[in-house]
Every structure is written in C-alpha cells, then in structure tokens.
Amino acid sequence: MDSRKVKGREWCQRGRFALTPQCQGNRPPDTAPDTADTRPADTDSKRPDPRVIFALALFFSGFGVALRDVRFMAALLCLALLCAVLLRVRFKRLFGRFKRLWQVVLMVALLQSLFAPSGLVWLQLWNVPLLTSGGLEKGLLVLFRLALFITSAALFTPYPARALIQAMVQLRLPYEVAYMVSVGIRFIPQLGEELRDSLTALALRGIVIRELKLKQRVKLYSYLLLPVLAASLQNARELAMSLDMRAFRAHPKRTSYYTLTLNRWDWVLLCVILLLTLFAFFAWFAVKSW
Amino acid sequence: MIRFEQVTFAYPNRQDFRLTVDFFASGACTALLGENGSGKTTFGKLAAGILKPDTGRILYDGQDIAGLKLGEIGRQAGYLFQEPARQIFAARPLEEIAFPLELRGMAKPEAEQKARALCEEFELNDTLDQTTYTLSRGEKQRLALAAIMACEPRFLVLDEPTTGLDRRRRELLAATLRRLLARDLGLLVITHDRTFAESLGADPRFIKEGVLLDG
User: Fold this and answer.
1) pLDDT value at residue B26
2) Mind listing the pLDDT tens digit for each residue in A77-112?
3) Cα–Cα distance between B203 and B215 in angstroms, integer?
4) CB contact under 8 A, B100 and A207
5) For residue A51, which of A283, B65, B111, B116 sits 20 to 30 Å off, Cα-Cα?
6) Which of B 80-109 lie inside 8 A of A, CB atoms?
7) Which of chain B's residues have a Cβ under 8 Å away from the Cβ of A224?
8) Would B38 be classed as within a structural domain?
9) Are residues B5 and B57 in the same domain?
10) Hey, of B86, B106, B133, which one would you mutate to test binding to chain A, going by the most A CBs within 10 A of its CB?
C-alpha cells in the first residue's frame, strides 16, 4: 500500500481528526467510542491544526512580499525556520530534493547583488563595481525572501494530504478546489518518476546528454515533454472517470468521515499569529513613517 | 553475451528484498521467469545498466559496464519497458525512430531513410500519418522496438513484452523477435508467459525471491 495512504490513515487514527456525529452514529456498536484513547504520547497529533499552519504561512508569505528591509526579512526568516524546526520539518530531505532550486535562488541573489550596485563599493574591477553595500543588501533581501517562501511551503510537509484537504474544506474553500489542490500534490512525485523513466529511456537510445550541444539539448527536452504530457492526460482522464463513478460533485456539499477540531493550544497559536501580525504591521508603519 | 558475476542488489527503501545473482546467458535468447515481486524487472534493469549493483560486476562481452554512462550502455543494449508509451517521445512514428540518430550525428536524410526501412520491417507503414499518441498498444510496442533497433544494440532486454497483447499480437511479436534473433542479437525476455518463451526457443531461467534458480 502507498506509504502516504498509511501515513494519512495513521494520522487520522491518532486523534487529530474527530469523527463527525453522523459518522459516530454509523459506527458499529462494538467499536471504541472515540479515537482519543488511541492517541499515543508523542504523535503527529501533537502538531498544531493545519489551519494554524495556513495562518502562519499566510503571515510569513504576506510579510515576505511586503517587506523591503533586509533586517526585518532576516528576523522573519529566523522565525519561520524556528517554526519549521518545532514542526519537525525534515530539512535534509528538503534540501536534497530541491538542490537545484537552492542553486537558482543563490544565483538570483548574486545577480541582484551584481546588477544593482549602490552605497559603498567594496570590490571593483576596471572601475566596474562588483560588490557594493547596497547590492549585497538587495541580494540578501532576495535570498531571504525566497528562502522564506520555501520555508513557509515546507511548514506543510509534515502533514498528510488528507489533513490539508480537510483544513481547506473547513476553511470554507469549495471542496472541488480542495480536491484539485490535493490531486496536484499527489501527481508531483508521479510526474517526477515519469520524467526519470523517460530520461532513462532516452539515454538507453545511446544519447549521452552531456555530450550534446545546447541547441540539441533544447530539442531533446522538448521530446521529453510528450510522454510526460501523454501520461498526465491519461491519468487525468482515468481520475475524472473514477471521480464520476463515485458521484463527485453530484451534491453541493459533502460530509467528511473525519473532521478537524481546534484545541486550546491551536486557539492560543492563532491568537499569537494575530498579535504578531498586528505587531509587525505597526512596526512596519512606524519604520516607514520614521 | 551478458554475464553477472556475483551481483547483489537491494533497494534502499526495501529491506525485505535482496537480489543475489550469478548469471551467464548461455544462448542467444534467455527467458527469465518468476512470480510477481521475485526480482525479474530488477534483474532486467541491472542487465540494461539502469540500476547499478551493490557488489559484483556486470559484463557485456567481457567489458565491465560499471564505468559507463547510461547513454554509452544504450549504444550496446536496448530496453523495452513494460509500458511502451513511456519510451515514445516524438509525435510521429518516423520522427520517433529518426531523432536519436540525428542527435547522435547522423544526417537527416540518412536517418529518415533508416527510419522508413525500420517502419517497413516492423509493419508500421500504415501508422506513418498517425500521431504516436493514438497508436494501439501493439503498434506502440513495435514502434518502441523499431526505435531501439535503430541504435543497433547487441543486447535487448524486454520487460513483460506480452502484457496486454492478445494471442495474435503475441504471435506477431514472437515472429518479430525471432527475426531479430537471426541477426545475432542477444535477447533477455522477462515474462510470465512460458509458452511465449518457448515459442522463441529461449533458454528458460527461473528467479525466486531475488535468487536465480538452477536449471
């Protein structure tokens, strides 16, 4: 069985989800009355409700877009990283998987630093400023901003897709949209696998990609798109048929077997996020007017 | 000839499975038979260089393939995936066969001529005006085979080639493979279908729980 499915099921069993009253009514009489008794001491259920994470990600990404000050951005990034550590985000895996992305982020920061020189010149070559205080600040701002966005997205990674869908549904997002998002997430690893298979199949046709010229490489990558696109269309068609067979969208509302419940600590965290937002707003306006 | 010298392989996320093989393809065609999960596909992927062994060596005519890039291995060995659609890249059958040849430096008219000859040989002439996406499974499989053969490999690994084919299509495929065998091509056929293996005159080898059985 798919490990993600197992993880999702375990997560549901560990107490973060509660059974809806309708579903409790359908429970066979000999089963346990609630899931609370099956909650282990240290489980995923100790993590905050996914809706708290949505609020947190909104806070980080919103201020990540608005802020222009590198010190504030650095402070915000530190806070985001602290949250990620507390949520036990697996950084090693994340860095490994998005190695190329981090390289691009660093490159963007470097280019920003080189092409937007201002302030004190620290290093120059033939009167061309290479490293300036203003350029470095702008480069760092871009670096911190992109790192903040990636860290905000990473806050969701410890949660199973089922919990995130349920959070979206309970945040009054139409369930069709929530399912579309989850389907998108579900297909990302599958697309990666198909792309890897296609690259393998291409290499087995005697093509050594590193030996190709740039023009040939571009042509080659265009060929890679066809099998991936064809497989995606096929998957989408099959999934659509499967959803139709289960009467998806036959009714305007759906009841869920499991629902999320905000506990006392979730409310405390939501209040903290709200206070932080207000504080950051005031600080931002104060600095701007000053 | 493909030779496995005391090869072991285990997937990092599957501790319960370990392949241990000492294998030598004694004839032109070898059929690897076994139950689901016995390690047939893993064996095939090792033979084609897609997976690298943890220990031991895999030799093509005495040459160790450990130091070779997959593209370099691909010039000696072809691999037909179970799902042929995964290895079809171009929109038209002729282009599918010709484009790797062009990327490898062959002139366009020459590559196209070779592609036409292969389409003729693999009975794909009726499909030339179609897009590859709309081809039937059997046609996709023949096209994938033709595209592999365009690279003139010395060995060919076929992973469950009879999946989804009816009896007539299976016979057609067997006839095509017999033709290839006549060209001194080494074949490794991974299959459940013993009748199909027999129709190729293959040397049957059995694999169980990652271990190649004798005889």
Assistant:
1) 59
2) 999 999 888 888 887 776 776 677 777 777 777 777
3) 9
4) yes
5) A283
6) 81, 85-91, 99-100, 103-104
7) 89
8) yes
9) yes
10) B86
Q: Which two tokens stand for residue A50?
A: 């996914």
Residue type, A36: A
Kindly report, residue by residue over B133-174, the tens digit of the pLDDT: 888 888 998 999 999 999 888 889 999 988 888 888 888 889
Query: Given an 8 Å threshold on Cβ–Cβ distance, is A226 in contact with B90?
Result: yes
CATH number at residue B72: 3.40.50.300
pLDDT at B15: 65
Q: Is A211 on the interface with B (CB under 8 A)?
A: yes
Q: Write down the pTM of the prediction.
A: 0.65
- Its domain, for residue A233, covers 174-246
Q: How many CA atoms lie within 13 A of A146 on its CB side?
A: 16
Q: Are residues A67 and A154 in the same domain?
A: yes
Predicted confidence at residue A17, as pLDDT, reads 55
Set of chain A residues whose Cβ sits within 8 Å of the Cβ of B156: none
Contact A208/B at CB under 8 A: yes
**Rounded distance, CA B86 to CA B133, Å?**
11
> Which residue does chain A place closest to B72, by CA atoms?
A206
Residue B97 has a pLDDT of 92
Residues 6+ apart with CB under 8 A from B196: B161, B162, B170, B174, B189
Number of domains in chain A: 2
CA dist., res. B213 & res. B207, Å (int): 6
